[in-house]
Amino acid sequence: MGKKYTFSEKNYFSISFDEIQKSNKLSFPLFIYFQNNDHLILRYQSNKDINIEEFEKYKEKGLKEFWCPKEFYEDYKNSEIRTDANAESIMDPTTELAIATLESDSLSENEKEKILSKIGQDYIEVIAGMGGNDPEEAKKSLNKCNAFVDEIIKIAGASHEMGSLFEDISMIKKIDLPHSASCSTFSVIFSMALGHTDPKSLADIAFASLLHDIGFMRIDFSILQKSIDTFSPKEGEAFKEHVNYVEEIFKLHQIEITPSVSEIIQDHHEQFDGNGYPIGKMGFQINEMSQILSLADYLDELLDGKHNGEKLTPAEGFEVLKKMQLQPDPQRRFNPEVFDPIVQAASRSNIKRDESQLSEKDILKKTG
Ligand SMILES: [Fe+2]
Ligand SMILES: [Fe+2]
After folding, report:
1. Ligand in nearest proximity to the CA of 215
2. Ligand with minimal distance to 245 CA
3. Same domain for 137 and 75?
4. Alpha carbon of 120 to ligand 2 centroid (Å)
5. Is the domain of 75 the same as that of 111?
6. Which of 68, 87, 106 is where one domain is finished?
7. pLDDT tens digits for 55-112?
8. Cα(273)–Cα(58) distance, rounded to whole angstroms?
9. How many angstroms is it from 95 CA to the middle of ligand 2?
10. Which of 16, 44, 199, 323 is the 20 to 30 Å CA partner of 106?
11. CA 321 to centroid of ligand 1, rounded, Å
């Protein structure tokens, strides 16, 4: 019998039985975890022949996976059984916690909100510390946030009416559309932080964010390439039209969009002070999720240099938002109930601006 090992999901990653059947020999050990008495047994030693029949027996008993110590992750990654499809099956503990919370039947709504909102706030804190003034560093860190939100959307979007589009959308997202991808990442994280934790709302805002600027398809490319601050009045008006093309484009491409997703997209350029478009709605007339998307959109425009051509890191982008919060003007572009908690969560990162890179350890520490 194998020696008893202590198990912690932080120290092991799982590999499904099916993956193992693709190979005769592996360069990493495999353990089986017995939940009832919480112990691990070494079942395969590296570089020996695999006894598939033995493994089949475990499978018949209902065991679905092996566990491997994380120090062997590189060996697993480089092994022949490794494919891109299972590359994403290893999650950081915060992502696992968020998903377990979203899927839990035993936690109350209140408890779910507490956990997810804390995770959302911690992510904002991390985003706001990203990169300092190094764009390359910021880009690397943002990928981890994107990966986190991708996992959230997978769960939240599964029971959504537009869920069948998810695969297409995530494909498109991988190919291009960095602005839409970042907006969906920021929107979902902001929504979670603000206590929107039901899967439908999260999926709504994720889909809306990915599709919000679909109207750009009808806007002259020369306008899209310019910074917003340099638009002539005529170009500015032409640009604003992108929100009016949305319904038509969806119809033409036979994309079935739900009313809630459509509403979020329609209002994404409305402003709390009434200075937005296309209608000039004010305050709480604006769809609440649109207000969140609008802030995510604004932040990513800052990162993308969309306003004046100067690309900012998330750390610098949040500095701009913080300054906006200090303005005495009572007329505000963003709803303070949306804006203030987000900027406040971001402000916590001030203390450790210098070690701003997102790491598993940081998040673990922050989520306790
Ligand atoms: Fe837009
Ligand atoms: Fe946008």
Report:
1. 1
2. 1
3. no
4. 21
5. no
6. 87
7. 788 888 778 788 888 888 888 877 877 554 444 455 678 888 999 999 888 899 999 9
8. 63
9. 26
10. 16
11. 19
